[in-house]
Write a structure and sequence with these properties.
alpha/beta; 10 helices; eight-stranded parallel barrel; 17% strand; two-stranded antiparallel sheet; TIM Barrel; 271 residues
């Protein structure tokens, strides 16, 4: 399995320092976040970004993310389409060809699953046309929070396996997997070719319904059963990217080189 870091882990670190820190720590991939990429490009060129990635021997694994696209108002979806096209154009120039899609939260708590699935597929079909233009791939990440429209692996698979959509894959985030109250054996339901990326993280011990993104911690420093999770990945033959994704604000204030080294040590201990 190949190791990457999602930019959310060191959200406040300048792009070039962030990329250098994770490279020195031994990571080979990076997931760039949408807003941080646009901020960087206000004062740098796309060529600068490409050169910095190459200098640090890093592959841009994905862009994060097309957020909350599935049930939002049409005006908001048009905005999403505009920034998505910008990211895909940047990706073509830096060697990134994959972007993550994240479903909406529910404004109508009683919306039934079939309606959610139909609406999500309809939006994905529009995004797929854009992806075809830029030779990009779409992957889909369910969120485990109780008010997310798609929080379960089963429902996510029903969506991405729709025959009207191009080939798509799943992103499984360990935080959302456990918060979504999945059993480890539910990974067996995912065909290996459908599992494209793992977001790895642990969390402080709280009831699942109370956990927030800011409660994420480095692997093996929380209460998730990551050992069984990783063992199951090995059993099903997963050999793609594992990307560390934390939103822990305390880490944003620490030395990025120390955080990157601690991150690699934690992952190696787990694997």
């Amino acid at each position: 399995m190949k190791l990457a870091v999602n930019q959310a882990t060191l959200m406040k670190t300048e792009m070039e320092i962030f990329l250098r820190a994770i490279s020195i720590a031994g990571f080979k991939g990076v997931e760039l976040r949408r807003d941080e990429t646009f901020v960087y490009l206000e004062n740098h060129t796309i060529e600068n970004l490409k050169t910095t990635l190459e200098k640090n021997n890093l592959e841009c694994v994905t862009f994060n993310a097309i957020e909350l696209f599935s049930l939002c108002p049409e005006k908001e979806f048009k905005r999403i389409m505009r920034y998505t096209e910008k990211l895909m154009d940047i990706g073509n120039q830096i060697g990134c060809d994959t972007i993550i899609t994240v479903p909406s939260f529910l404004d109508e708590p009683n919306m039934n699953d079939n309606t959610i699935i139909i609406k999500t597929i309809d939006r994905l079909k529009l995004l797929a046309k854009l992806a075809e233009k830029y030779d990009f791939k779409l992957c889909f990440e369910p969120l485990g929070f109780p008010n997310c429209s798609v929080r379960k692996v089963d429902m996510a698979l029903k969506i991405i396996q729709n025959e009207e959509l191009p080939k798509m894959g799943l992103v499984i985030d360990t935080f959302h997997f456990f918060v979504g109250e999945h059993s480890i054996n539910e990974l067996d339901k995912i065909e290996p070719e459908k599992l494209w990326l793992i977001h790895l993280n642990d969390a402080i011990e709280k009831p699942f319904k109370e956990l927030q993104d800011s409660n994420r911690v480095l692997p093996c420093r929380g209460f998730f059963n990551l050992e069984m999770f990783v063992q199951k990945l090995k059993e099903i033959g997963y050999n793609k990217w594992i990307s560390l994704e934390l939103f822990n604000q305390r880490l944003w204030e620490e030395d990025p080189y120390n955080v990157a080294n601690d991150s690699m040590d934690s992952i190696k201990k787990l694997l």
